[in-house]
Structure formats: C-alpha cells, structure tokens
Amino acid sequence: MNKKQVKKKMQAMGKNVKVIARKEIAKAKVELAKAGKKVEAYIKKNPEKAAIIAAGIGAAVGAAITSLVVKKKKK
After folding, report:
1. % of the chain surpassing 90 pLDDT
2. Is residue 43 a contact partner of residue 50, using CB atoms and an 8 Å limit?
3. Residue spans per domain, the chain
4. At residue 20, does pLDDT exceed 90?
5. Residues 42, 50 contacting (CB under 8 angstroms)
6. How far does Cα 5 stand from its chain's mean position?
C-alpha cells in the first residue's frame, strides 16, 4: 500500500467516525432531554427534597472550588 492509498483509507475512516459520532451525540441529546423531564417531574413532586439536594450539591461544589483556589494561592 502506498502513501496515497493509506491517506485515502484514513480519510474514509475519518468520515465514518464523524458520522458515528454525530449519531451518538444525537442519541445522547435525546437521553438528556428524557432525563431532564424526569428531574422536572421529581422536583414538582418533591420540592423540599430537591431543594435540599441542590443545596448539598452547591455546598460540595463551593467547597471544592474554594480548596482549589486556596491551594493555588499557597504555591
């Protein structure tokens, strides 16, 4: 196989990868939309629990960011 043949084969493979990736992204978007609807329904049924979960996640993210900032300042 010469360089031109290898190049053509690689280009064809690249196009196939792009097509597959686009299909997978489309599937992921559909699944994400479904999950979003489930979350909205849960929040409507359980607003107190949802608020507590959101506060816990917010506190954890805030603590993680704070620890990263403090570590950078120490260096």
Report:
1. 64
2. yes
3. 3-74
4. yes
5. yes
6. 37
State both tokens at 23: 């299909």
Residue type, 59: A
Q: For residues 48, 52, 58 and 60, what is the CA-based torsion angle, rounded to 10 degrees? A: -170
Which pair of structure tokens corresponds to residue 73? 């300042």
For tokens 């299909």, what's the residue? 23
Assess whether pLDDT exceeds 80 at residue 75: no
User: Tokens in use for 9?
Assistant: 């084969």
The string of DSSP letters for 5-47 reads HHHHHHHHHHHHHHHHHHHHHHHHHHHHHHHHHHHHHHHHH-H
The whole model's pTM is what?
A: 0.55
CA angle 58, 64, 68 (to 5 degrees): 145
